[in-house]
Amino acid sequence: MIGRLKGVLVAKQPPWIVVDVGGVGYELEAPMSTFYDLPELGRDVTLCTHYAVKEDTVALYAFLRESERALFRALQKVSGVGAKIALAVLSGVSVEEFSRLVQTSDVAALTRIPGIGKKTAERLVVELRDRVDGLGSGVVASSGMTANDPVAEAGIALQALGYKPAEVTRLVRDAAAPGDRAEDIIRKALKAALR
After folding, report:
1. What are the Cα distances from residue 124, in Å, to 18, 33, 74, 112?
2. Which of residues 137 and 106 earns the better pLDDT score?
């Protein structure tokens, strides 16, 4: 199993990143919470990883914080929740915010995350209430990120998270301000979507 990677960040296009480790390029899928804090291309990065083998696919997921990987794994133990929904949760709310929503049984806020309906939200509350309390926020690495076309990058990332194109257009239009980086636009758009 691959539990951690340390190498040079060579590509990032939400939700995918490529990290060069000793001449081998590892392609990883990451939540937006990790994208917010990735370094610039060509810089060193250390990532917690989750290696998943399914019947027809092998996937590697990346997280900057151990708490995010722990929540990603806990979410997938809930019936009806797979990697795509787990990534959407981590992209939509912080580990601490998710923990608060589960502890307070805020099903309405949970259903605002793409891919989570009322029944899934209720299952999350019931099955994770006792597990989310101990999740910390240990940071493995962090630094800024730059983008060539932040509005387009934000739109692609939001669509990858399951938002419909018309909704993405509205969210990005309302969130984007001159000089914003892609992660700033995405963060504001996700907060607006959860209201």
Report:
1. 31, 20, 10, 14
2. 106
